[in-house]
Amino acid sequence: MQRPKRRDKAATRAALLDAARLRFARQGYDGTGVREIAGDVGVDPALVFRYFESKDRLYAEAVRTELPAGPAPGRPLTDLAATLLHDVVFADWEQFDGEHPLLVMLRSSGRAAVRDRLRQELCEGYLKDFTERMGGDDPALRAEMVGALLLGLGVMRSLAGTPALAAAGFEETRELVARVVTALTEAGPPAAG
After folding, report:
1. DSSP state of 42
2. What is the mean pLDDT of residues 56-81?
3. Secondary element (H or E) of residue 180
4. Are 48 and 83 contained in the same domain?
5. Where does residue 70 rank: exposed (0-12), middle (13-18), buried (19+ CB within 10 A)?
6. Of 58, 167, 72, residue with least CA distance to 129
7. Are 23 and 108 found together in one domain?
8. Is residue 4 part of a domain?
9. Does pTM surpass 0.70?
10. Which GO MF terms does the UniProt record name (predicted)?
11. How many domains does the chain have?
12. For 160, which DSSP code?
């Protein structure tokens, strides 16, 4: 009597996460089914629920990523912006079909749970770091404006594929982003007009 092959739990779990990342990146949350993900790996859909309990938890784990840590205190915020520009906008996120997980989440942002997760990733990650380092008037607003710039660059370059941003190199873009970040970092009270 031949014994059935034992499944490598860690490898199967990792394969399910990889399949989920690609499906969620291409089809969004609502367009992706647990059966499809399980089929991509060649396992029963019940196994997805055994490892992740729900599609929501699978999604949360599949799109979770560590944003790069900010520069040491005292270094300019342009360094953090350059790191994020490189690691979020210009990086090759092969496991997410070439897009950063934040952009993957944008595809599914019609769902309240996904919007909440996106807000949490942004606000508790680098925006918090930006705000703490910003100083001056309205630091949270200015930090969120920097975040909007970086996220917008990612959307324009990766999702929309606009020609100028798609053709621009990292160094050229970094220099322009540094100018905007410097202007927002050094912002004092608004000028009377």
Report:
1. T
2. 73
3. helix 170-185
4. no
5. buried
6. 72
7. no
8. no
9. no
10. DNA-binding transcription factor activity; transcription cis-regulatory region binding
11. 2
12. I
